[in-house]
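Data card: per-record layout.
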Amino acid sequence: HGGPNRFSTAEECDRVCKPETDPCKQRPEPGNCLGYEVKWYFDDSRDLCNQFAYTGCDGNDNRFDSQADCEGRCRKGQPAEATTTPAAPPPQPSVGEECRTPASLEPCGANVTAFYYDERSRSCQGAYIGGCGILNRYRTEEECERRCGAFQGIDVCASPLDPGPCRGAFPKFYYDSVTSRCEPFSYGGCHGGPNRFSTEDECEEVCGAAPDTNEVIPSNCDRYVEECRTIQCQYSVQRTRTADGCERCSCVQVEIDCEPLRQECERLKCTYGMERAVGDDGCERCRCIDHPCAGKQCPAGERCVANAYRDPLTQDARYAADCRTMNKPGQCPAELTTEGGACRRECNDDADCRGAGKCCSAGCSQLCLEPATPTSPAPRTTAYVPELPQAPQANPETEPQVTSEEGGLATLRCLFHGNPPPKITWRRGEITIDGTVGRYRLLSDGALEIVSLYRNDSGVYICVADNGLGTARQEVRLQVNVPVSTRIVMASSTVAPGSELSIP
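The structure for this 504-residue chain is written out next.
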């Protein structure tokens, strides 16, 4: 048995539990939202900063607002100056003025974003140079890639549709060579094919608009027409022709890479547990469960505290949100010292201490301690202490049944008197409840507290008192109520005002 935090070697532990913390070595992550922000990431293998599309949330730390921020944080620097005359550099292919990196990227004219080709990174990047009179200035990233970058020399209109492997959803257009039309699709945000345009006008400008023809559709294409009318796709619709000349529609198939999400689930460390869900793409996504006290309101003078317990079925750690008094009755012990001079912080106030415990200052430490004085006047039923030794006797005024709601909290109490005062223990059936684990706690007055009630907690609990002279027992029945809901359905009918309505 044992917990899952166990590895065969130190190397295995480091590999699983030490994620890459250097932002410069992390893979760029576009995130999981629907926004579009141009950011910069560092390519460690090439020692270069490149742009990518960030969706606005999640992602990792390899994300910078500007090229200068990226290079200042991650770039390894220029090579050291040579002490001898360097050899002549190899001849570089000539670059036209329309692809030469601008001498200045200072904004000018209208504050409009445009794209330019950066010779050093060999990529198209955005800047506020829309109003500048330079040749290396393009309206869209795709236009820049066609003139100078990765799409140069490629017949983009004949290329297949490829939305890319990332998980963004950026509206773009592609040219459908079957229908000779420009159609919308969702671009993932990274990589992808060259058949991509930012606007429909750009697509038609490059590939041509569909001619106005009175195309005669074969008479036996009805089912394909209906298929194209009703189909819904995550990325885009791919159109093809059948042997009979009918136009057929199908969804563009994109290979989904779940590995980054799987690694993210492995790296995620959650204090209060983790939720896992499988998305429409078949990839599992993980998120940390919110603090148990999030959204819980407590009465004045009380504070919400997260209490840990183990699920009785799965033995997984669970947390319950309890409201506790921040200033309990009683006083802290007068003389407090800490061993070894070490500072310990067990609590912020009394709410962090179980039972009647007080949060007490001891030098630089904050400790949970039993109060030095009685926390409250002794109950009338326990005030009697016989002068002579006497075995425990049950008080008949003990509440014989306690009722609570599923998911709530129940406190079971039993009262005895005897001399000396008896020790209280609890049992359910043949099982003794010591209050140190799970959802059970023994309070300072001998009461049994059960948190996060389940319906199968209902039953009889036995309270046993023992002071060495004898024993006594009482039974307390716990009833856990389960909310019941139902859906009433009845045929529609018309009822006149003032008449009676009967629901079967």
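Known properties of this structure: Residues 222-230 form the longest helix (9 residues). Confidence is low (pLDDT under 50) at residues 79-94, 381-386.

See the next section for split statistics.
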